[in-house]
Amino acid sequence: MPVFTAYVAERIRPPAAAAAVDHLIDAYSGSGLFTVALAPLFRHSTGVDVSAASIASAGRNAALNGLGEDRCVFLAADAARLFASVAYPPDRTAVVLDPPRKGCDAAFLAQLAAFAPRRLLYVSCNVHTQARDVGALVRGDHPGARYRLESIVGFDFFPQTGHVEAVAVLDRCDDDDDGAEAPSGERHSGGTCA
C-alpha cells in the first residue's frame, strides 16, 4: 500500500503547476484514505461519500492523523450532487475518484465535466468501467471540460488473480495545452487535446 499511496501523491498535482493546485476533492471517499493521505499536499481537502458511517470513520481517521477541519472535512452526500456543495475554484482543484466497480454514472460525469477541475486521478478495481468513464472524459461526451489521459498504471494487490487496481491520471485540456508526455515507463497519450 505505501507504494500505491506514494504513486498517487506524486501524481495528484500537475508537474508544471504544482503550486497552483491547492484544493482536493475525494469523491467516493469511504473512510478517507485519499483525503487523509493527500491532505498535507493541499491547503484544504473535502471527502464525500454516500455512507454516513464511512464519513464518521473518515472523521476519526483524520483526527487520528492530526488533521482538523481547517485542513479537511467530510460530507455525507451523494456523489451525483457533489459539486453543488463545494466552493473550491476549479482551476486550483484536483479530484480523486475511487468509485465502486460499476464506475461513475453519467450524471456524475456530467457534473464533473461542468465543474472542470484542473486535475483528475481515477482509481478503479474495474478496468472496464474505468476505461468507459475515462473515455467519456477524454472525448468530451458531456458539456464542460475535456481531459487528456496523462498515464494509466496497474497495481497488483491480488497476485495470481485477474484483479488489478488501475490509476488513471488526467489533466484538463486548455487552449495552451502542449501535450507534454508522462514520465517514461507509463502509458501516455503523448498528444494534445486538440
Features:
194 residues; alpha/beta; Rossmann fold; 23% strand; globular
How would you describe this structure to a colleague?
The chain is built from 5 helices and 7 strands; from the N terminus they run αβαβαββαβαββ. It has helices at about 1-10, 35-40, 50-65, 105-115, 125-140; strands at about 25, 45-50, 70-75, 95, 120-125, 145-155, 165-170. It starts with a helix and ends in a 22-residue tail after the last strand. Residues about 180-190 have low confidence and may be disordered.
Mean pLDDT: 88
Indicate the CATH architecture. 3-Layer(aba) Sandwich
CATH superfamily placement: Vaccinia Virus protein VP39
According to DSSP, the number of beta strands is 7
Cross-sheet strand order for the largest sheet: 3-2-1-4-5-7-6
Task: Using the CA coordinates, give the radius of gyration.
Answer: 16 Å
First CA to last CA: what distance?
Answer: 36 Å
**SS content category:** alpha/beta
- Strand content is 15-25%
CATH class call: Alpha Beta
Q: Tell me the count of domains.
A: 1
- The proportion of residues forming helix, as a percent range, comes to 25-40%
Low-confidence stretches: 178-191
Count of discrete alpha- or pi-helical segments spanning 4 or more residues: 5
